[in-house]
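I hope you will forgive my troubling you with a question about protein structure. The matter concerns a single protein, recorded as an amino acid sequence and a row of backbone structure tokens. Please examine both parts with care and let me know of anything in them that strikes you as inconsistent. Thank you for your consideration; the sequence and its tokens are set out here:
***
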Amino acid sequence: MNKIGICGDNCMFCPRYLASQNGGIKELEEVKELWVRLGLRASAVSPQDMACYGCRPENNCAYPEVRACANGKGIDNCGLCQEYPCELLNAVFEKSEELRSHAVRFCTPEEMDALHKAFCCKRQNLDRVHFDIKKPVDISGETR
């Protein structure tokens, strides 16, 4: 199953999404600890508040302007937009690169692999949608 979020995140590799779908409080607590280590959440957040079920209005989104724009246009993700890529999305791509650079210092190789697949291939994921590319994309984001 392929689940690409509005901003290009791949939910099928996202630790929050996977813990919410397949796990319980213990798994969400582990994700919370990772997010706190990365500075993405405060330590006071509850494991339940870490749950994510995809791009839904009730979920805490890192890119609310992007979600509002896509929702306003009635599209599932930015790759379907006539204006792709836009300035809003280019800022998202930059933020993802900053996260990757920061995470390298704090994450295990396994955590980095999951974060890379989930959050660092946004442009490649959205390019595939936008240009209707049917070839598989490997984890480095290159088409085969």
The two ends are 19 Å apart (CA to CA). The chain has a mean pLDDT of 86. Residues 11-130 form one domain. The first helix runs from residue 15 to 22.
